[in-house]
Amino acid sequence: MTRVRRARLALEPSPAARVLAGFVLAVTVVVSLAPFFYVISTSLKETKSLFSYPPHWIPDPVYLGNYVALFQKHPFGWWLGNTLAISAIVTALKLVIDGMAAYALAKLDFSGKPVIVTILLISVAVPLAALLIPLFLIIRSMGLIDTRLALILPPLANPLGVFMIRAFIAGLPDELIHSARMDGAGEFEILRRVVVPLIRPGLVVHATFIFATQYTSFLWPLVAVRDLHKQVITVGISSLRAIFTVDWGLISAASLIAAVPLTVIFILFQQAFFHQSLAGALKE
Amino acid sequence: METATSHFQLSEDEHRKQRFRAAMRHNLTAYAFLAPILVFFLIFMAVPVVWLFYLSFQHDGILAPAQFAGLDNWRRTFSDSLVLKCIINTLYYCAMAIPTVFVLGMIVALSLSMVRRGAALLRIIIYFPTLQASLIVALIWTFVIHPDFGLLNLGIRALTGVKLNFLGDPHFAMPTIAMIEVWKGLGFWAILFLSGLLALPQDLYHAAELDGAGPIRRFFSLTLPLMKPTFYFAVIFATIVNLQLFDSVFVLTDGGPVDSTATIAWYIYRSLFTFSDPGFGATLSFVLVVVVLALTALQTWLLRERA
Amino acid sequence: MSAATKRVNRRRFLNLLGGSAAIPYLMSAGSPSAAGLSGKITMIKGPHSADEAKYEAEIIDDFKKTNPNAEVEFTTYDWANMNAQLTAGFASGSPADVQYLVDLVYPAYAERGVLHDMTAWVSDPSWKSEHDAIQPFAWQLAKSSKGTWGVPVLGAVYNIFVNLDLLNAAGVADTWNKSYSDMMAAAKATTKGDTFGFSMRTRVSDYAFWDWFPYIHNAGADILNKDWTANGLAGSEDAMQFLIDMHNAKVTPPVGSVDWQGQFDLFKAGKIAIYHGETPEINDLLAKPPPFKWDVAYAPPGPKAQTVMGNFGILSVAAASKNKDLAWAFIKHWASGPEVGRFASEVNLQVVRTDIVNQLYADKPAMQKIQKEFVPRVKGLQPHPKILTMLQQIWPVAENAYLGNLSGRQAIGQMGDIINKLA
Fold first, then answer.
1. C57: contact with B, CB 8 A cutoff
2. Number of helices (H), then strands (E), in chain B
3. Burial C106-122, CB ≥16 within 10 A → b, else e
4. pTM over cut 0.90
5. Residue A102 scores a pLDDT above 60
6. For A127-175, how does the pLDDT look when each residue is reduced to its tens digit (9 = 90+)?
7. Is residue B114 part of a domain?
8. Which residue of C has its CA nearest to A54?
9. Where are the domains of chain C?
């Protein structure tokens, strides 16, 4: 496995530049993590309030009841499970669908290509909020309201991924494809055996992006699914806000646990982010 | 016309037929590859857009049966002052958030490119906020902007003795939301720009140094121009995403105070679920689509020119 | 007569026939000797406590005692996303049979025909004693000109909490409630350092209009006029001005800086003297007693009245329900004295029945006070289908006014215009 390319900007930065960089990064780290300090602290306290007067920063005693309550009094396990499953399924399906379409757009010639490209390109700009209403009506007419399928199918339609992968494939030399064709390979075989291994890091980038988008989606699951046991984690956590009091201890605990799976996935795959010159592929 | 009958030469007709058949085969294969996405696209994107258009000429259609409304909804869209406010608010937000996150992202990316040890860990930490759902980010930030014990006010009070009313003051509310979204998006853009930086050809820099160009000069004359493709993609993508701002507004301010954080997506949601007015919501959705497309087209045109 | 009209008439005739034949059947179904109803229904409600499911199970188990073949499935919507979930539920074509709807939202659903008109059921003579046990103002909330849309069961009163220690220290404990100017004086007297004399909700996301209503009602005004043709805010300009003055007198936390729960946190920490809250918060104060003496109160009298605001929930039946008889039976059971009384005391809400008030809250004097003295004073919402829309659209004007940018007269004027456009 090739190592991640060492970060290096041309020439050796001067010591002064290094110090400045270190300072910037230190500040960024603090700023990125500081708000979570509140969340961690509150999640370990037996409290409903945002703050107490005077505030106690370090929880004393440390209270694990919030975490327990999440799983016992709320279908938190369901939310987590649903979200992971749906995100994984959508990611897997998307990789196949987008990969195929991207290959066609990048390396195959066919009539009507500019039309298809234009239509798909324009639709990237169509926002989900705009489609909520008709999407709901369509899903309802398919009898899929309140099902997990309702959460899996619509996200498969967004063509943004197609263009991302297309950029990666377009960077591959045509000769590779041609020689494979000469060898008598069918297009699908070429995609599978020749193209995919070469763009694997790009695929991983895409997969992580799709997974994260699905994991954090809120509006569509809110509207499409009512049953709390089929719900995803974002809507689930939102439902923890009761009308009379917000249980900040509970919400804090929920937010932290919700962050774990996605972070783990990102850690596992962040190598690929830096393998592939993401921006290099975008030089179109 | 005389047709050649040589063994190796096909007639022009047969040539054409063969080419045609080959083209058909190509088309078939290509469309087979495109079929899955096109099917989903058709059902879950194309049809909704058409239906949206249809809905915009109706009253209701979700709870009660649809009643033809003619141009009512469209007229309302143009006479409702809140619609204009939403558009302005959304654009104002984009104008604040996008340049800020790009500048900060670039600074962080440059810094990341200069460190050697611990780069992986740093990248994970910096990306961590981006991984959170918008909803959770908003909830978390409620702590940070709290007037008495929030980090920000603690710091600001220590420095200036003043307490800022982040979400209560109509002048500060949208900038506050912009700040929150910048915090959330910083990781993503920093990593994206970093990838771009790492892809730059090193020899140009060596040549520039030999020519006596200092680091700052190199940055402005080499780095920035070379990063153009990345920036173009970034601007367009950022615009599309940020024009759809909803989650933070919904959780933190519900459009207030005094409608200063009302965004187009927020008003669409309101129309559908609080007003139960899907026809108006549909019309607003078109407004959003038009704004997004217009801005995207404008940007694409402006940027393409300079490339 | 067109063929269509003939068809309709025939249908109505058959319905009447069927209905009248059903009356003896229905009456026997209510008697204890019947084997009870069978079938399955679902009920959806917003949670009033973390143990909501447990309390509901108690009610369902009791229902099963007389209806062993019935099944009731209980689900909740979450308050923050209530509108979205209810709308999606109705739109799906298979909403829950029994719906707990608050007065703010049910009229819009009723108008769109997704609720079942319960007029025939509630005026059934065999249910009369139960019907009359529910306060008339509650029935007013559940009715519109087109029908009766639910049985009122629960309510939450928006009362004021006062920090008696702070009021006593400033010597205003006896006078603060006498008039608006007395309240202003008390607020000023109790504001010092980081302690505020007064707080009420201001944010649209906090449904701030609940706190604002009593002052409007006390001036004899309301959102709509008597026949709901135009706004009814005339006369409330002075009340609005008073509230604006309150928010600009530096006796409150900076407008909009603290949300409602934050204000409650401040009150619990002893930093607010007069806090506008809601009765379920009493539960909190009893569970974790604050370090000061507190009491409940309502706003001082206005020129025309001294009212209390409350918001109430009704149990409705979805028009698309496939087992309306079972749904109605379950609602009657839920709304009966023993059941609703037990539930209310478990979650610390008010009931709208007059017969059980003496048995409730014997151990919680504050709740008892609210139930006995405050609930009868309630002047609630006008259940107009667009009431929520109106309130949400006028509220930014109020926010602007509280920030000191509008006078009472201007604010009420602008609000009136908005309401007129919608009415």
1. no
2. 15, 2
3. bbbbbbbebbbbbeebb
4. no
5. yes
6. 777 788 788 888 888 888 888 999 999 999 988 888 888 888 887 888 8
7. yes
8. C269
9. 37-155+311-377, 158-220+234-310
Helix axes A248-275, A65-72, angle to 10 degrees: 90
Q: For the residues B194-219, what does the mean pLDDT come to?
A: 80
pLDDT of res. A278: 46
At C227, give phi and psi (nearest 5°).
-100, 20
Nearest CB among A24, A39, A113 relative to B111 is that of: A24
Q: Which residues of B touch C271 (CB under 8 A)?
A: none
ipTM of the complex: 0.82
For the domain bounded by C37-155+311-377, which CATH number is listed?
Answer: 3.40.190.10
Spell out, as residue ranges, where chain C has pLDDT lower than 70: 1-35
CATH number, domain at B214?
1.10.3720.10
Inter-chain CB proximity A50 and C261 less than 8 Å: yes
Report whether B181 contacts B238 (CB < 8 A). Answer: no
Q: Whose CA is closest to A214, among A80, A79, A84, A78?
A: A84
Nearest to B259 among C83, C112, C396 (CB): C396
Residues B299 and B171 placed together within one structural domain of the fold = yes
Output DSSP code: residue B273.
I
Measured in residues, chain C has a length of: 423
A136–C91 C-beta distance less than 8 A: yes
Residue type, B148: D
Same domain, B18 and B88: no
Check if the beta carbon of residue C36 is closer than 8 Å to that of residue C330. no
Q: Which of A31, A258, A277 sits opposite B183 (nearest CB)?
A: A31
* CB-CB under 8 Å, B165 with C204: no
What is the arithmetic mean of pLDDT over A208-234?
Answer: 87
- Residue C127 gets which letter from DSSP? G
B52–A131 C-beta distance less than 8 A: yes
Neighbours of A234 (CB within 10 A): 24
Neighboring chain A residues of C281 at a CB cutoff of 8 Å: 244-245
Range of the domain at B269: 79-306
Strands B67-68 and B58-59 turn out to be antiparallel
Write down the mean pLDDT value for chain A.
81
Asked if pLDDT for residue B104 goes beyond 60, the answer is: yes
Q: Is residue B288 assigned to a domain?
A: yes
Condensed to tens digits (0 to 9), the pLDDT of residues B263-286 reads 999 998 888 777 778 888 888 888
CB contact under 8 A, B273 and C109: no
Angle at the Cα of C196 from the Cα atoms of C172 and B256, rounded to 5 degrees = 130
- Cβ burial of C416 (10 Å; 0-12, 13-18, 19+) is buried
pLDDT at B83: 93
Separation CA B266–CA B83 (nearest Å): 11
Q: Is B68 among the domain residues?
A: no
Determine, for residues C399 and B253 on separate chains, whether the beta-carbon distance falls below 8 Å.
no
| Cβ <8 Å between C284 and A53 | no
Distance CA B249, CA B168 (A): 13
Cα C157 from Cα C315, distance rounded (Å): 18
Class for the domain spanning C158-220+234-310: alpha beta
Dmax over CA atoms of chain C, in Å, equals: 80
A246 touches chain C (CB under 8 A): yes
- DSSP state letter for C101: E
Instruction: Find the closest chain B residue to C400 by CA distance.
Output: B258
Domains present along chain A, CATH in parentheses: 68-281 (1.10.3720.10)
Residue B60 lies in a domain: no
Strand pairing report for C350-351 and C151-158: antiparallel
Residue type, C265: D
Using a CB–CB cut-off of 8 Å, the residues of B that contact C are 60, 62-64, 146-147, 163, 165-170, 252-259, 269-270, 272-276
Q: Do the Cβ atoms of C117 and C317 come closer than 8 Å?
A: no
Judged by CB atoms closer than 8 Å, whether chains meet at B136 and A20 is answered as no
CA distance C304 to chain A (A): 30
